[in-house]
Sequence to fold (374 residues):
Amino acid sequence: MLGGFLYWQLLSRSAGLAPELREDSNDLGIYRQAGEAILRGEIPYRDFFLEYPPGSLLAFVPPALLSSSKASYIDVFSSEMALVLVLTLVLTALAARRLGVPWMLPAASVAAGAIMLYPVAVTRYDAVIALSLATAALCASSGRRYLAYAALGLGTAAKLVPALATVPLAASRRTAARGYAVFFGILAVFFVPALLLGGEALAESFAYHADRGVQVESVSSSVLMQLGWVSGVVFEYGAFEVQGPGAELAGDLSLPVTGILLLVTAFVAYRRGGFGAFPRYAAALILAFMLGSKVLSPQYVVWLLPLVPLSAGGASRLAVSVVYLAACYLTSQVFPAHYGDLLNLRFPGPELLLARNLLLVLLWCLLLLLPDGA
Fold:
């Protein structure tokens, strides 16, 4: 019943989005072009540029196969992502039961978060990443670690971030070597053909993202705005980026800052002997990446849907869920509700962005500092 409610809410709400968020969406246009190119027999990277990893095509092709126009592609793709999120909800509930905790709060948290994020939840393919993490959480809680590695391999083939979630699984040294063999085997299935057929163009897709500037919604951007160091916003690399004093430095510091945040997260988890607590430290590692990255698109918040509700016990589960859901709400307030204000650097856009990013920082701190089992 909860899954059916989620599916209905996502589709009905997304159907009412403004044309620039659906019919004229740059992302949905890329997905459709890639899916239709595959159906014409074209080779990704070689015959057409694809900025995403090859596993992403698993989400792009089915709607192209089942549609004949832009409008029908969007409808089918939205339905596909809504179903993926329903499955994510179910797997999260099953993982909660395996962990011995009441399933209703985690399931309700997934549903509420997805509904709050509806402008991006079914118009981007990041629901696939949430599904891979939910599958890994269920498999890890059931003692099926090799299947968890396989799920994360599929997620990484679609978008590289789930690779971070393999670190908590590696706490079990007995299964780590074989687990990573499974993980890299899955990646090879996708990346080896892409490399052989696409050649240097595959590397260019990675360079494309490395060359990006500081995205307007990133943590560093919100800090620069509050300091008055943003002189304007430009559209580059399919996203809005900030310009002004410190923007280039912030972009250069993004990689080392992200590395430091990941190391701090890994160190805290190791000292507390908590690498085995998969949902908590998978969420903390992914959050560390999000906070340090120069790109923090609104759909990235979808990744955490199945992890945060499973990352703590007792009263702390309610606390982290509330902080996360507040971040989901503010994410939709930033985009699309007050996106024009943000791009024009006027109230309340920058203030809402700063509040959302501070909540993500708070959530990261809670995941690292709450006592184990709390």
Q: What stands out?
A: The first strand starts at residue 232 and ends at 236. The chain has 17 helices and two strands.
